[in-house]
Amino acid sequence: MAYEPILTSQIDQPGSSTLDFYVQRRRGYEGLRKALTLQPNDLIEQVKASGLRGRGGAGFPTGLKWQFVLKDTPKPKYICCNADESEPGTFKDHVLMERNPHLLIEGCAISCYAIGAKVAYIYIRGEFYHVQQILEAEIEKAYKAGFLGKNILGTGFDCDVFVHRGAGAYEAGEETALIESLEGKRAQPRIKPPFPAVAGLYQCPTAVNNVETLCNVPLIVLNGPEWFSAIGPEKNGGPKLFCISGHVKKPGVYEAPMSTTLRELVYDYAGGMLDDRPFKAIIPGGSSVPLLLPDQLDTPASFDGVQKAGSLLGSAGLIVLNDTVCMVWLAMNLLHFYRHESCGKCTPCREGTNWLSQLLERIESGEGRPKDLDLLFGVSNNIVGKTLCAFGDAAATPVLSTMKLFRAEYEAHVREGRCTLPAEWRAKHPVFAGH
Amino acid sequence: METVTLTIDGRPIAVPKGRTVLQAAIEAGISVPYYCYHPGISIDGSCRVCIVKIDKMPKLQTSCSTVCTDGMVVHTQAPDVVEARAGVFEFLLVNHPLDCPVCDKGGECPLQDFSYTFGPAESRMDFPRRVFDGEGVKADVDFGPTLMLNRNRCILCTRCVRFMKEIDGDAQIGIVDRGHGSEIATFQEQGVHSLLSGNLMDVCPVGAILTRDYRFKSRPWDNPAVVDTVCTFCSKGCNTSAWLKGKPEWAKGSRLIRMTPRYNPDVNGYWMCDIGRFNYHWIEGDQRLRRPMLRNGAALEPSAWHDVQSRLRDRLQAAGTTGTSAVQFLVSAHASVEEFFVLKQLLDGVLGNDGMAATTVTWTSSEKPQPDGAKLKVSKANAPNINGARDLGFHVGAGNEGAPDLSRLRAAVENGQVKAVYVIDPGPDGSLGDVSWLIAARQNGTLPLLVVQGVLMTELAAAADIVLAGAAYVEKDAMYVNDQGRLQAASLAVAPPGEALDDWRILVNLGRSLGLTLPYDSAEDVRRTLAAAMPGTPYAEADRQVFTRPVPARNWLQASNPSERWKWDFLYQDLPPVKGHSVQMEGIPAPIAVIPLKPVG
Amino acid sequence: MSFHPQMEYAPAKFHKSARTLAEQGPAFAYTPENQARFDENVAHYPPDQRKSAVLYALYLAQSQQGYLTASAMSHVAQQIGCSAAEVEDVVSYYTMFFTKPVGTYVLNVCRTLSCALLGAERVTEEISAALNIKPGETDPTGTFTLIEVECLGACDRAPVVMVNDDWHERLGPDQVREFIENVRTRGAAAFTGCHLHKEVKA
User: Fold this and answer.
1) pLDDT tens figures, B510-560
2) Which site from A188, A384, B135, C156 is most exposed, i.e. has the minimal number of CB atoms within 10 Å?
3) What is the third-level CATH fold of A327-416?
């Protein structure tokens, strides 16, 4: 734990969100100053060389994403910052925007310069209104200080950053759905291709990047790609924020290199299991990824490491589960989420999430039938790979993963006609609304 | 045109660049199901049933959204495609009421048809269905003045939403709620108020959007014949299909059962307006003239044609002796090219050079409020053949927009200068504009003789001395020239009722009785002469226009969803139409200006 | 508009939909301040993309009136230059818009996994019991509305409750009654706000 936080350095200091603090204590806007002396293409090359991978969930190389943004077009280009942070178990962007907002603002400005955009929209989820207020106040200060607006730092580069408030939709975190929502429509994904890099916001070339991704950009420009890639394992370089929640003593956001193991994150950073109860499983990347078991805790918390272990790092939302958690209940809880958040555009997701949710409620309430287990598998598999966006796969994952790892619990529910692992922290009189 | 060659199910297929895999498959006659795709509106990719396997792509792809590239290898019948597709069909039907026996779409329903072919044998769903507005027919709720909506049947393909946004130009339909609770809706349930609303029934691939006009009136298997024709309610000339219900002639009710648009990319695309769609009831209505009539005192009495013709000749000759301008013709622009052509020869023969001056062509004009962005704009002029009349030398003024000025004729009639007015109007009531002055002139005696050749017992006809029963636009093979100058053929769908005659024949009979040689025994004769008389013009093609006969729809294939006609022509030919039957299409003439039917292999 | 002479083109005579509609409400227009705010916000987007401001426009209308009536939606449609159906479409999609009156304090209890692991289900039950309302309902005094929402993105401070635009974090089931009483007596001052914010300041 010798690692010194970079993205979240000094966030516990009073006034850490202010422009003065940023400029005086964090070498604020020096990255922008340096970036504006470079050619946009060189900037993209630097980000590519750094190996920065998107922090929103997919881990796609950011430099490549920018490179794909159509250059040869008379249309304006846009940066959309994805601050919709809605993946259950994820709360890292919140910290960055609240405690280090100028890092994001600077990242937006540099990114705009790199892809040739003049406007960045920060799409922030509607529930983060208190964060939005901080962000907007700081953006205004950045304008006044000449870091945003017209002729930035005398270089002739113009850049506007606007905050766009969402209104309650998980699906708005999908990049094309975010664009649709920004355009004032329901947050439903678009068919790809065309990808946003070609026809995104207002059918113009657009790069959609996560908050944490953009926050890394000024650091790469300032310290060089080699510095960045040297942090953490190969191809998984750079500082990383981990969100740890659930049954741990000290839940929170922790910054660490991606060489850190899940065990270190749970037991060292987050202080170990709550009430020292036994560890049962962990969801390592937000609710949409498969669970990992105790014997996989020594997996490095990197994109490639977690994938090798059979799950995904996703948005690095680690949800820790102790021995009181019923896995049927867990799947039911998450499918309630997915049913509620399914946008309803494509058939398998719209009908499938509801069906799965109904089945899980039936099993959890003790009315499940033996054939329901096969049906759960069947319906889940009919969703996976058939939907318009990744939501369908995400929704089926909790079912498929818990059934694979904890099938005995499902069978016990059906056999005994009750939840075999009721916990005292759960509802005393659960309401099964789905069917 | 640049083409790309791809392979679908082992068959090499060359298509123009830019086509999607689904379009290529449809054109090649390979069955791929789809709902959200419609060739006239934007691609959505949401229904997911058109998924196919494409080599070198990691997941199954929606063929509607994948553009063909050279060398692409597509599989539509691979085991994983078949299984995945069946899975999507199971999802589509988990909340569908399966009330096909009472659903208007039953028998011509893409959901029904494709589910039989591609869906699973049975559903594993055992939870209660989602119900929106009630069970059964209670689920049919108001959806504006022309439509009803059944949300239980809806599969949320959003074709209607996209139609309103993209074609109508006023996005009156949206989706409310989200996820499994989604339903299509208008703002505050106000319903769809649009001149193009009827198209929503056509685009709906299930029985969710129904027209009030057709609802519960017929079933696909009761409509044994369909005729390709052209709408004549405005100068646009939308290509349409007239659907005929099979019934004995003596049975109650009309034979015309609905009008639907017929694809013509140059005129109306896939669409038509509600006027042309719903305003057909007058053709077989109670006001329809079935026999010629002669005035006997206060009453008009049905008479035989030979009596009427001799009376007509005598009275016209009597009127005509006092001066060439004493007989005036008032002709609706609903008259066809053939009728104008014969009329012109009649006038030339009887009145010589004064003939054209003695003729007034009339029509009405009305604003049809439509959003600015509407892709199908309905013309203001409510008549199909103004350009045809102009081309044949009749005086119709410069533009087609405003209604013509009848004041000169009116003044002459009211001054008592006119001894006879001969009206020709094969259009619906009101086609002539305001003729109250004409009725008044006849009733007060200023006008000694009024002859009306028409199709309805209008107030004008009721005031006439001689009434000649003509034929409405679906009762004859006739040509019209739309506002683009396009000569179009409208086919006979139902025979004129009773003793009513095709209008050109009435004029020929009149001419012959007046001693002219009008050598026409059929409409083809008229068109042949017209073609020869006007070389180098579009009319030179008049004798080559194709008039279709009613297509006998012996099975659901030919009586299926009309907006999907182009699809059956291509797509369904390799499918058994009804289990155990075969398609019989021999002897069906290929219509012009539609995608031709291909012989079944 | 009657363009069809034969068919009744008049008020519908069949069945009414069972869909719950937003109430029509009194005539609605932005206050001058809100109009100015809207005009300022809509300028963030290209001139031909006014629709982008629809969420903001709806928030404004909701803040002005407490919830969205059909009149308010029509006004927003007019401001944006789109159809009212498109506005209703958006309103119904997003969870943060209300089409019926809500209490002074809207208690949005997060029910998703991380909060549930630490007792969120019990929190909802306790609030339900304390106020004698079910999720989705407003108490008779019009003070509280209880809503179960999905993940609020504060999983490390579970269970979390969003109250209007403010937050109350780490609300254990056994603290619910005290919390309710606190809100009744102290109003918004009873909320913890964002812990993160406060902890850092301390």
Assistant:
1) 999 999 999 999 999 999 999 999 999 999 999 999 888 776 654 434 444
2) B135
3) de novo design (two linked rop proteins) (1.20.1440)
Chains that touch C (3 or more CB pairs under 8 A): A, B
Token digits for A316? 């690095």
Concatenating the DSSP letter of every residue in B186-206 gives EGGG-----TTTTHHHHH-SS
Are A80 and A104 within 8 A, CB to CB? no
* Of residues A343, A346, A379, nearest to B178 (C-beta): A343
Distance CA B475, CA A346 (A): 46
d(CA A182, CA A173): 11
Cβ contact C3–B368 (<8 Å): yes
- Mark whether B415 and B537 lie in a shared domain: yes
Q: In chain C, what residues touch B142 (CB-CB under 8 Å)? A: 12, 14-17
Domain that holds residue B11: 3-93
- Nearest chain B CA: its distance from C163 CA (Å): 23
When CB atoms are compared, the residue of B45, B128, B177 closest to A191 is B45
Q: Tell me if residue B526 falls in helix, strand or coil.
A: helix
For A388, the closest of B45, B84, B127 (CB atoms) is B45
The count of domains in chain B is 3
C58, C89, C112: best mutation site toward chain A, by most A Cβ within 10 Å?
C112
Confidence at residue B138, expressed as pLDDT on a 0 to 100 scale: 84
Domains for chain C: give ranges and CATH numbers.
Answer: 32-93 (1.10.10.1590), 105-201 (3.40.30.10)
Q: Is C52 on the interface with A (CB under 8 A)?
A: yes
Q: Which of residues 113-142 of A touch C (CB under 8 A)?
A: 121, 125-131
Could you tell me the sign of the dihedral formed by the alpha carbons of A187, A188, A193, A199, in that order?
negative
Q: Which A-chain residues 365-394 have CB contacts (< 8 A) with chain C?
A: none
Q: How far is CA B246 from CA A390, B202, B222, B243, B288, in A?
A: 51, 21, 6, 10, 20
Of B49, B91, B128, the CB nearest to A351: B91
Residues B189 and B81 in one domain: no
Domain-located, residue B48: yes
The pLDDT score that the predictor gives to residue B563 is 44
How far apart are alpha carbons B52 and B75 in whole angstroms?
Answer: 6
| B176 CB within 8 Å of a chain A CB | no
Q: What would the pLDDT profile of A150-197 be if each residue is shown by its tens digit?
A: 999 999 999 999 999 999 999 999 999 999 999 999 999 999 999 999
What does CATH list as the number for A19-229? 3.40.50.11540
Chain B residue with CA closest to C3: the answer is B275
pLDDT, tens digit, for every residue of C160-196? 999 999 999 999 999 999 999 999 999 989 998 876 6
User: What pLDDT does B452 receive?
Assistant: 97
Query: Chain C contact for B183, CB < 8 A?
Result: yes
CATH assignment, A239-322 = 3.10.20.600
Q: State pTM to two decimals.
A: 0.93
